Amino acid sequence: MRHSLTLILLLMLTACNIFSPKDEKSASAAADSAEGMYAQAMEQINNANYPGAIKLFETLQSRYPYGRYAQQAQMEIAYSYYKQSEPESALSAVERFIKQYPNSSHVDYAYYLKGLVNFDEDLGLFGAGFHPDVSERNSKAPREAFDAFKDLVTRFPNSKYAADSKLRMQYLINALARHETQVASYYLRRGAYVAAVNRANGVLIDFPQAPATREALQVIVQAYDAMGLKDLRDDSQRVLDKNFAKDGVKPVVNPRQWWKFWQS
């Protein structure tokens, strides 16, 4: 009986020695596969460990440069940079994806993410904290956000991101128009009347449907009046009276209210 127990224990230990290393080896191989590395990286994203996710995705790309996992890894790298507030790196990663995979079924999301990165980068430009002494602040990011959303809507009208992109485009149109009008008003207060007229005219040309066009026309009227150009003043006043009722026109989309809705 004692010999039988000894033999059974010996066989069990031998089995452990035979099968455990093999099982560990299989698990290690699975983890080192493209699919396994992608799963690990996605777990890091789910845990908000974006630097760790980026590192794993980059390792995946270097080991497995071809195939769907490498392609998806490039997009996830862009998303991870976006989430950790590194817009330049995010945009660079998005551009690489668009250039490398122009026929990807996910390229619409690439344009959407490009718009989001720029959309979020400089929203403070349009906030309540606008000050005249920063009237020349760069509106490059919002304009590039608009262009990215426009590319998405134009190229992929049936994309699931198209509807949201259209809303953001409307917000950007109104916000950019309001910003340009604020700049024009700033020039008017400083006595730079020609600059005020030019900036306000830009609003009428670039954003003809925006609510801020009314204020832009008012700036033009006041600037021409200050310069003693009565004929131009009167012409501008007639345009203002013809297009806007005396009690004002309510905007179709109020940017401030829309933004509060978007954040809710």
From TrEMBL:
Record flagged with keyword Cell membrane: no
Annotated organism of origin: Candidatus Nitrotoga arctica
Subunit structure comment from the entry: Part of the Bam complex.
Gene it is expressed from: bamD
Stated role: Part of the outer membrane protein assembly complex, which is involved in assembly and insertion of beta-barrel proteins into the outer membrane.
Coiled-coil residue spans: none
Protein name, UniProt field: Outer membrane protein assembly factor BamD
Domain Outer membrane lipoprotein BamD-like: 32-237
Top-rank taxon, per record: Bacteria
Subcellular localization: Cell outer membrane
HAMAP family reported for this sequence: OM_assembly_BamD (MF_00922)
PANTHER family: OUTER MEMBRANE PROTEIN ASSEMBLY FACTOR BAMD, SOLUBLE LYTIC MUREIN TRANSGLYCOSYLASE-RELATED
Pfam families from the UniProt entry: YfiO (PF13525)
